[in-house]
Amino acid sequence: MAVFICPRCAHRAAGAERTEGHQPRGCPRCGFGFTVELMDDYYAGPLTALVCCDRDRRVLVAGHAATPITGWPEHALIGCEVSAALGLAFPGAPDDPIARALEWGVRVLRQPCTFRPCGRDDDRDAVADIFPAYDDDGGLLLALTPVTKG
Q1: Phi and psi dihedrals of 85, rounded to 5?
Q2: Which long-range contacts (CB under 8 A, 24 or more apart) does 101-108 make?
Q3: How far apart are CA 38 and CA 143, in angstroms?
Q4: Is the alpha carbon torsion for 49, 144, 77, 51 positive or negative?
Q5: Which of 7, 52, 75, 142 could connect to 63 by a Cys-Cys bridge, CB 3.0–4.6 Å?
Q6: 65 is in which domain, residue-wise?
Q7: What is the pLDDT of residues 56-83, one digit of tens each?
Q8: What is the pTM of this model?
Q9: What parts of the chain have a pLDDT lower than 70?
Q10: Which CATH number goes with the domain that contains 59?
Q11: Number of domain units in the chain
Q12: Contact between 123 and 97 (Cβ < 8 Å)
């Protein structure tokens, strides 16, 4: 059964829940206009920023924990290419994991990366989980979790 996650509030719903009682296709919890289908359930942690992008990698919504984690307000990210906007880099990766997820329609999980928080000169280490969209619009969901040092 398909699982859907809201990029705004990280609410998860099973496919059967989305068809009960003529529910709209958006999020039943926060009312956001769309949800992203996942192959398997995914639990976004409290320190995971969810960012939803279109097929051209432009940010559509920076939802669950994105502003507290990255420091970037949503309005500064919308419409920008996600890697450029977040200063996202994948050192040591043989290719661009975002391009791989979009081109091949595969999930890329636990990919080490760095990102640049708003107003900071240094990069932070993180782990990215990248989920391609399975609808006709394409796109992807990026889950960015900072690595805590300690």
Answers
A1: -65, -40
A2: 101/130, 101/131, 101/132, 101/140, 102/55, 102/57, 102/132, 102/138, 102/139, 102/140, 104/132, 105/132, 105/134, 106/132, 107/39, 107/131, 107/132
A3: 12
A4: negative
A5: 7
A6: 44-146
A7: 999 999 988 899 999 999 999 999 999 9
A8: 0.84
A9: 1, 16-25, 150
A10: 3.30.450.20
A11: 1
A12: no
